[in-house]
Specification:
There is one protein chain. This protein is an alpha/beta fold. The chain has a single domain, classed as Aldolase class I (TIM Barrel). The protein is about 40% helix and about 15% strand. It is built from twelve helices and eight strands. The protein has an eight-stranded parallel beta barrel with strand order 1-2-3-4-5-6-7-8, surrounded by five helices. β2, α2 (about 45-55) and β3 form a beta-alpha-beta unit. α1 (about 15-30) packs parallel to α2, α1 runs parallel beside α12 (about 240-250) and α7 (about 140-150) crosses α9. It is globular and about 45 Å long. The mean pLDDT is about 95. Bound molecules: 2-phosphoglycolic acid. 2-phosphoglycolic acid (PGA) binds near residues 212, 233 and 235.
Amino acid sequence: MRKKIVAGNWKMNKTQEDAKNLVEAVLSSCKDEAAVTKIFFPPMPFLGMVSSLVQGTSSFSAGAQNCHYAESGAFTGETSAAAIASCGASYVLVGHSERRQYFLENDEQLKQKIDRALGHSLSPIYCVGEQLAERNNHHYFTVIKNQLQNSLFHLSESAVLRTVIAYEPVWAIGTGLTATPDQAQEMHAFIRLALTEKYGIAVAQKISVLYGGSCNAKNAKELFACPDVDGGLIGGASLIAEDFVKIAHSF
Ligand code: PGA
């Protein structure tokens, strides 16, 4: 059985007090059932606090939105995987399209970030997704295959089993243009097939593949009903406790 996951990527939103209130509101109304893992991705300064708030629960975790690819050193303003792990976090997002677009992160750096995260017992959630032009010119399968091959497929079987993949079509992020369940399922099945070709079916069947991009309390149910969609990476809707809880209850 694959892990079902609902992850809230808060991006650059919330203050410390808002962050505490949001986590507490979710914890008080969301089922703490191991069947669905719920992960908060707050801004870095609140990671320790959010990790402490979820400690002792059976299904909530905290993660960082990014980590640096180096172990440590003179990288002012950056955060190492070791520092993230020491805050009590368990996950890290790698390769979100906003990082690729605004911070020019490339597949080679993302590969190193994945290795670094795994080296500190963090589970990377590796984000892949095509631009609108790549969807329109029908290159989207090639784009996703390359992103997988360049940054993830160097891993051994046991290492890849500790990762999660998030398919986030760039044209759907923050736009209200959600992929249809058919579009999501088509790509998730393609990712599963790529995993099967590389690692075999037994491994491919164990790796969770999340959908992200304008997933909300209204459309989560039909997206999560797709056989290869194992949950969601939620941006905007994760900032509202009630919506995030509804999404977490959408399986
Ligand atoms: P969105 O963002 O839900 O606001 O579209 C998703 C994401 O960027 O992870």
